[in-house]
Amino acid sequence: MDRAGIELNGVRYRWPPRPVVVVCIDGGDPAYFDQGVRDGIVPNVARFIKTGFGAVADGDVPSFTCPNNMSITTGSPQSVHGISGNFYLDRDSGEAVVMTGPELLRSRTIMAEFSRRGARVVSIAAKDKLRRQLGKDMDLSGGSVNFSAECADQCTLPETGIENALALTGMPLPHMYSPELSLFVLEAGIKLLAERRPDILYLSLTDYIQHKYAPGEDEANRYYRNLDATFGRLDALGAVVALTADHGMNDKSNADGSPRVIWLQDVLDARFGEGAGTVICPITDRFVAHHGALGGFVRVYCLGRLDPEDVMRVTRSLPGVEAVYDKLTAARRFDLPLDREGDVVVISQADTCIGASEADHDLSGLKGHRLRSHGGVSERKVPFILNRPLRAEYAARAAAPSARCPSSSTGRSAPSTPPGPRRAPCGATSSSTSRSTGSTRPDRYLGCVTRPRCDENRHPSRHGRLLRRGGGAARSGAARAAGRHRR
Question: Average pLDDT in the 269-293 region?
Fold first, then answer.
C-alpha cells in the first residue's frame, strides 16, 4: 500500500495518520451554530471552536448542494469539476441535462483517489443523486463504502461496498422529508468509524430542516442538539472532525408569509414574446416540496434572435435583483465551466427568490411555512469548524486578511495538505475566512475532509413537468413548441 499520499487537481494530500471525518451540513448557515452556541444547545461545537478552530468561509456560487459538495470533495472549483447546478441546457440538442450523473463530473473525488491507492474510505450521502457522483471511480474492493440514506435498503456489495446498510443503525428507512435522513447518515458513519476505522469519512446531510425552520425555532434547535451529540461521538472515537456546509439559507418571504418571487420567465415572455428565451432554475431536483424549485440563482438561455444585452437591461431593473452577468463575466467571477453556462445569469437579493413561470412551480409543500432558500451570493457563507487546532502554517493563513489558498486556477500547488473541504484555510481553491476563533497552536496533523427502487428519473407529476422543462423552462417557447427539455 502506497502511503505517500495523493495528488489531485494540482494539490498534494498527505495520507491521514488517523481517521478524518468531514461532515457537510446541507443548508448549515453559520447562523444556526451562532444561535446554538449562544443558547448552549451545541456544547461539542462550542468546544471545537474554543480548542480547535472556527471560522466562516465562502462557498461557491451558485450556492447549491451539488456544486459545493463536488468542490469540497474534489478540492477544485466548478470550472474544474464541471458541476455548476442540477441542470444546464445543452445547446446542440436543446435538452435540459441533469447534472447529477457521474459522467458529467470532470474530476475524481479525494476519497476515490485515496481508495485507488489502498485507503479505506466511507462516503455516505443523504440523497442518492450525490452518492453517484461521490463514488465516481471509487475502488470498493479494499473495504471502501459509498451509499445513500435514501436507498439504504437497496445496497449491494458490488455497487456500494456494503449490503443491508439499513441494519447499521437500527433505524427504519427515513423519509426524504425528515431530519432522520441526516441523522441516519451520521449514525451509520459512527458505526462504520467504530467498526472499520476508515481513513476518510465523508458524510453529507440534507437541508430539510433549514428550509423549514429558522435558527432558534424549536424544530431547528432539536435537530442541532441531535447533530451536536453525534459530532461529540465522532470526536470521542479519535477522529479529526471537520464541520462545514454546502450553502447557507435565507428567508425569502413577504411580511404576510407568502414567497417573495420574481417570475422571470413570465417577465421575459411579456417583454420579448413567448419562446424568445428559456429560464432554467438549477436548484430543481426530484425533491422540491420544501423550496418549490425557487432559489437565488437562475440562468437565461437566449433563443433565436434574442440579445443577452436586452435580457440584462430588463432584469437589472427588477426589484429584488442583486446582480446580472453575461456568460463570460459570470464564468470568470464565479469560476464556472463556460460550456455549461447560460447566456445571462441573474442573482437575487437575500430576501428574494427567482422562479421561471408561475404556473410551473408547485408551492403546495410550503403551506404553513415561510419560504427559506438559497443559491445566491448571500447564501455562500458557511461554517468551517475543526475539533483540533490549526498547524502553524494554516494558522498564519487563516490570520491573513484574505485567506486565499493556492489552487489549480493559480497555476501553483498548495502545500501538502490532508484530505477535506475545499474551504479556507486549508482547502484547495481560493476562498476567504472571517470571524475566525479558537486555538492556533501547531498540531502534527490537520484534517479537513413498497417504496420504488431509487431512480433519478422518477418524479412526482408536476415536479417532473418542471424538470422536463429544464428546471423551470417556459410553459411555451422551445420547450412547448418542440416538446423538448426531457430529462
Answer: 78
